[in-house]
Structures are given as C-alpha cells and as structure tokens.
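Researcher: I'd like a structural prediction for the single chain below. Treat it as a standalone chain; there are no partners to consider.
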Amino acid sequence: MKSILLITLLAITFAADPEQCLKERCPNEYAACQKEVFGCASAAMKCKNQCGGDDAECMLNCALASKNAKLIALAECGHENCQDVSFTYCDIQICVKSFKSECMTSQGLKAYQCAATFLQRHSECQCITEF
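Model: Treating it as a single chain, here is the predicted structure.
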C-alpha cells in the first residue's frame, strides 16, 4: 500500500521499470521517502509542476531548492545511479483518466485494441503495468 501511495503521490518513477531502479539502486533513500510519503510527495508535486515532468536536471535542482532532505536524497541518488534509465514522472490519476476516456467508451474489439496499444501511445504512463 505504501508503494502505491508513493507512486500516486510522489510520482517519481523511472520509465524502464517504475520502482525497480530506485528500490534496487537507492534502497535507503527510497525507504526513507516512503516513510514520509506526504512530506516527500508535497515537495515532489511542486517540482513536477515546475519542471513539467520530463526534465531530470530541473527535478534535481527543484528537489535541492525544496530543502526536503528525503526528496533531495532520493533525487540525488536516482540522478547519480539511474542515468541509464529514462527519468520521468508518471501521474497515475491522469493516466487512468486518459485510459478511461480513450478505451472505456469503446466496446468489444475496439476497446481491446485500444487497451493493448495504450502504453505505446502514452509512454508517460509506463509506470502502470496493468489497468
């Protein structure tokens, strides 16, 4: 449940494998941020709004400016150790809303085809493994 909250609220994920990079390469920072979901989440959402969600350098600088120690530690570790993985944000609520509006209005084969190709059309939603 904490992982879901962290993804939903913090929304810092790595596109190749949503939580794995942070869990494996930054386990201490990840755990610390998980324990303070709302503190990290609030600062991260401000950074997401400021940076537009796709600029790793902006996110790192914003995390530093936030003065939230746990967000800074997580952002620095992710920036340092996950450069081989595309750094992006995944806003689950927006992805689910897009999925519903695009794919849930169709029935039968069209709905299946829409669902099967949704992640190809929405690379920003790669943190969601299933709908």
